[in-house]
Amino acid sequence: MNNDFMGSDSRFVKPGLSRRRVVMGGAIAGLAGTVGFSALTKQSAKAGMATSAAANDADILNGALFYEHQAIWAYGAAAGGLSDTDVGKAVLAIALANQADHMAHRDLLMQVVSDLGGTPVMAADSYDLSAYLERGDGGLDSDVNIAKLALALETDAAIAYAGEVARLKTPELITAGASIAAAEAAHATTIRAAFISLGVEIPFVPAPFVSADTREQWVLKV
To answer: Which DSSP state fits 198?
Structure first.
């Protein structure tokens, strides 16, 4: 396993890498996810229960819940492949902060789906990431590829939330869903910031939108 975050070419690594700087970025993204998601409360969910839109919203949020389960699993599965180097530890710190956000999303989504009269989808034992690996959107064989995989997953989460919230019928849930999309974009930006801290010359925010049309600008290929 290649445990060097940027491979064997030291030209891409800045001297004096500050693990604290990279971890700080993860903490900021974690705060953004927690604060943004607080808008999705039991009270706002109950507001939608009195309308015929409840079943529609429960179904959409259950789809979002599936991907929160997937993200939580993916971060846990990838963590075991990280090295014990400073870089590996920095990536792990970001992963744990992002995973904590996904856990918060999961918990409240399960509550809201229940409040809307639905049955929350449960987590599976494992999830198929082969499409990401086959496209070269990351891997599980090194610190750098694990970070790239996380970036691709977070980018897709932001894209998915942005598209799905438009289908919700309850205004409070639309607002909350948009805040989650912003948190997922913050996760992706934090991962890109980690690469920048290591000397990779890429923009923090590579496009003015996070969408299917700009996806290739956000992800980093293996």
So the answer is: T
Could you tell me what percent of the chain has a pLDDT over 90? 61
**What pTM was estimated for this model as a whole?**
0.79
**175 lies in some domain:** yes
Q: Examine residue 93 and state whether it is found in any structural domain, yes or no.
A: yes
Instruction: Kindly state the tokens that stand for 55.
Output: 């079943």
Domain enclosing residue 193, as ranges? 52-117+128-218
Length of the chain: 222
pLDDT of 29 > 60? The answer is no
Residue 11, domain member (yes or no): no
Average pLDDT across the chain, whole number? 81
Place of tokens 């932001």: 158
Residue with tokens 């800045």: 14
CA of 210: how far to CAs of 19, 67, 82, in Å? 27, 17, 28
